[in-house]
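2024-03-11 09:14:02 DEBUG pipeline.ingest accepted 1 chain
2024-03-11 09:14:02 DEBUG pipeline.ingest length=229
2024-03-11 09:14:03 DEBUG pipeline.predict start
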Amino acid sequence: MAHNKRLAAAYKAVDRNRTYPLAEAISLVKANATAKFDETVEISMNLGIDPRHADQMVRGLVGLPNGTGKTLRVGVFARGAKAEEALAAGADVVGADDLAEKIQAGEINFDRCIATPDMMALVGRLGKILGPRGLMPNPRLGTVTMDVKGAITAAKAGQVEFRAEKAGIVHAGIGRASFPAEKLLENARAFADAIVKAKPTGAKGTYVQKVALSSSMGAGVRVDVATLS
């Protein structure tokens, strides 16, 4: 009952027929994040694309200037010196055949997967497990690389991955409700900028159509697209 009252109050505070300037939307989301835990602030962007077509897919990585407030667990496929480099850089799980066996057994203790190029023959066999979870290393995303240390450091520093869903929506967590408003504002603009830069060649018409912010347990707040940049 308390949960329903809290959510009702959050919805009451938001004018559903209005689009808010980004800074005001962030203030509203922060004010309505009244759950008993530090809620994640999430951004959702409706794009004028059809991701079923290869030339309209939007996917990439963006480093948020103020991090996400979440500790990302990183798994690395590497051998020898590169495995040692990964451990020294703070990887949570490092291995080769042993790591592949754990994944096949359903033991996936990481949120981002990085691999050196020589490991991709092994990693490729795990595609049916890692692919649907969005964990498959990809050279275009910088997660298949010899710069293991750089990839781990970027992931731990607040790098988020984005990928358009079937309906053309991209979304991501851009911080915690406890973050100062200006830090959430910087993160939101960095994310939106990355989406705009990732505009595919096949996109026609209005690219960024709708934007909304919300917290994990709060009401969605529509954002004026013009205020993103």
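2024-03-11 09:14:41 DEBUG pipeline.report Residues 2-68+159-227 form a domain with the Ribulose 1,5 Bisphosphate Carboxylase/Oxygenase fold (CATH 3.30.190.20).
2024-03-11 09:14:41 DEBUG pipeline.predict end
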